[in-house]
């Protein structure tokens, strides 16, 4: 009852005209920035911190939080329309969102993303309100060994994203992990996979790989299909049928719950949540074979998960003062600058800040929905552009996004190289999703593994003797078994077919001889 009273007081804060205005400003700025590759939520919040100086702390944090989840929402637009995910949390959305756009359902895909994001954000806010103190205590029980096991479990999602060929999926994932390890080792200061190039000492930025493997590779694929009926189809209505609404509802709810609990864990975040939700839905769906070809479940699940995870990441930030990602670390700095100390005492010392932010998130999700649904037809018109104009636009989009990060021409050559790599992967049926997932999780896995081994004195059994890592590793193995068994069965069937053909051929030769 007390929580409800506090939430009502929070809505009283969030619905003040000044706070409503800054919710709108934050959400709008975040959406626009999320659409543009190269300017993710971290850059957006960093740019908005000077604006927050001198403002009321509650109003400032409400605005910055709006920028955060607005950017995650906006990233889905470029992922669906151009296959150019500028935000890591929307990579999984492009797997089915872009095929829907190619099939003339861009408006419908954007509508599904908007509605799923709204539901995910709403469920996340409810979870934040009801479970914040309890979940904060649970998050503190996760040490390096637990996080390493969680990342391994996340990486096993590669199996469900690899179609029928596990080997190609695993190869792509390993390549992604190798790319994540490029640069100077933070512990030994030894260069790894840099080939003596100083430009690689700081590693390879995620955006370069994502735009190269997805967007630039798509340009090369379309150019290779010149004259082969590769034009975009007419964009259809964004209205959903009752059957489609019923189909997207269960994965949206499941993705929201999974995303929120994943977001609570520091270091996991929206990206891991979206991949886990996508792979889970593909594993349990009866029509799992259609994932990657324009299945609406493949849009609803990751979009609800990444928005719920954004809200979930505020649990450790506000209740423990522990940032779970680079974005929440910037938010933590903003809180401290505004003389607000996040932690267990925040709920008692500054309840107007905590509950005002919680209430503003719900208001912000409504603003996102109202703001973006009318704009969907305008966004979808991008696909009506002639290919002669659209393809150069995508290339410019990629070049500006990458060059704007470091102002380095070397990064542009890397972009081209990853574009060619993505094109070759498609030509040889290597899935791109495992490579991206390996890139995202590779650095986190290495860091957690080293920390766990340092704490245990080099004892590798720490990963199986603790209950949480043991359970997570068990789930990872179980998730691999169905795909491995299916591959072995297909090999056995193929071997039997070849043996029968050899027998028939031998019998025919004997008949001819006789």
TrEMBL record:
InterPro entries: DUF112_TM
Annotated signal sequence range: none
Domain DUF112, chain residue ranges per copy: 20-437
Keywords: Membrane, Transmembrane, Transmembrane helix
Annotated TM spans: 20-39, 110-132, 144-162, 169-186, 206-224, 314-338, 353-376, 388-416, 468-488
PANTHER family: TRICARBOXYLIC TRANSPORT PROTEIN
Name this polypeptide is given: Tripartite tricarboxylate transporter permease
Species the sequence originates in: Haloechinothrix salitolerans
């Amino acid at each position: 009852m007390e929580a409800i009273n506090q939430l009502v007081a929070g809505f009283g804060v969030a619905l003040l005209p000044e706070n409503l205005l800054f919710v709108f400003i934050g959400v709008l700025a975040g959406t626009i920035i999320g659409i543009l590759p190269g300017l993710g939520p971290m850059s957006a919040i960093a740019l908005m911190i000077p604006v927050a100086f001198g403002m009321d702390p509650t109003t400032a944090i409400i605005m910055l939080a709006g920028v955060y989840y607005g950017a995650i929402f906006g990233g889905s637009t470029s992922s669906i329309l151009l296959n150019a995910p500028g935000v890591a949390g929307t990579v999984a959305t492009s797997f089915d969102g872009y095929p829907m756009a190619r099939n003339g359902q861009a408006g419908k895909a954007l509508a599904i993303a908007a509605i799923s994001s709204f539901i995910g954000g709403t469920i996340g806010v409810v979870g934040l309100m009801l479970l914040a103190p309890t979940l904060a205590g649970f998050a503190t029980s996760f040490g390096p060994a637990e996080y390493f096991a969680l990342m391994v479990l996340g990486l096993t999602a590669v199996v469900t994203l690899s179609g029928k060929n596990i080997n190609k999926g695993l190869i792509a994932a390993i390549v992604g992990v190798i790319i994540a390890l490029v640069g100077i080792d933070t512990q030994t200061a030894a260069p790894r996979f840099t080939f003596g190039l100083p430009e690689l000492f700081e590693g390879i930025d995620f955006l370069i790989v994502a735009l190269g493997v997805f967007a630039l590779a798509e340009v090369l694929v379309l150019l290779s299909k010149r004259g082969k009926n590769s034009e975009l189809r007419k964009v259809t209505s964004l209205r959903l049928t009752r059957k489609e609404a019923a189909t997207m509802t269960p994965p949206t709810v499941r993705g929201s719950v999974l995303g929120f609990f994943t977001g609570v864990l520091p270091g996991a975040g929206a990206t891991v949540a979206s991949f886990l939700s996508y792979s889970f839905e593909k594993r349990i769906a009866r029509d799992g074979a259609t994932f990657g070809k324009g299945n609406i479940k493949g849009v609803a699940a990751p979009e609800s998960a990444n928005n719920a995870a954004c809200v979930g990441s505020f649990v450790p930030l506000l209740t423990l003062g522990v940032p779970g990602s680079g974005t929440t670390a910037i938010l933590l700095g903003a809180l401290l600058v505004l003389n607000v100390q996040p932690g267990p005492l925040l709920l008692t010392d500054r309840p107007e800040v905590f509950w005002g932010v919680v209430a503003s998130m719900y208001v912000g999700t409504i603003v996102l929905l109202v703001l973006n649904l009318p704009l969907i037809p305008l966004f979808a018109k991008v696909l009506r552009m002639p290919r002669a104009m659209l393809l150069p636009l995508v290339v410019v989009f990629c070049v500006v996004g990458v060059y704007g990060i470091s102002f380095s021409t070397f990064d542009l050559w890397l972009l081209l190289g990853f574009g060619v790599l993505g094109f070759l992967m498609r030509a040889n049926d290597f899935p791109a999703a495992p490579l991206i997932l390996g890139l995202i999780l590779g650095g986190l896995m290495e860091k957690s593994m080293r920390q766990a081994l340092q704490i245990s004195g080099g004892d590798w059994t720490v990963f199986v003797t603790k209950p949480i890592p043991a359970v997570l590793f068990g789930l990872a193995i179980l998730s691999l078994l169905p795909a491995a068994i299916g591959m072995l069965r297909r090999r056995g069937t193929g071997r039997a077919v070849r043996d029968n053909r050899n027998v028939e051929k031998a019998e025919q030769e004997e008949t001819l001889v006789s």
